[in-house]
Amino acid sequence: MTPDLQAAWDRFQADTADARQPYDIFAFGDGPELADELLALVLTGTKQATASRLNLYKTMGLRPPAPGDLSLVLDGAGHPACVIETTQVDIAPFSAATEEFAYVEGEGDRSLAYWQSAHLSYFHRECAREGSFFSPDEPIVFERFRLIWSPEKQ
């Protein structure tokens, strides 16, 4: 963990008296603009869920998130922006996404159709970078979370 990330985590722990360590440190999306856009949705409480390919965790040698895990979320420039806590995780095929999950994920018009289109595009880009292909049958990690800390709210 870099010194600025450690300083943010130390501040989170001091502000909340939460001694847990981060499960992950990441920015949403696959570029600075998308990271900032999705972060803004988290900070306003609009975005309370995310979806990731299970195979991505396997490729990275990580376990999928679990309820109670804390993550330090970065902005598009890689600066610490907030801490989220995973509250629920379901692993199911892409086609298992529901209107309710799409709404809670908070992106676009919050419809399932928007969610499917945006995530198909994203997962295809992600797989292309890995030299693989995305299949709608691939297991997806449907993660729900809550915002528990941001420096501006303290």
Automatic annotation (TrEMBL):
Pfam families: ASCH. This is ASCH domain-containing protein. InterPro entries: ASCH_domain, DUF984, PUA-like_sf. Residues 26-149 form the ASCH domain. CDD domains: ASCH_Ef3133_like. It comes from Henriciella algicola.
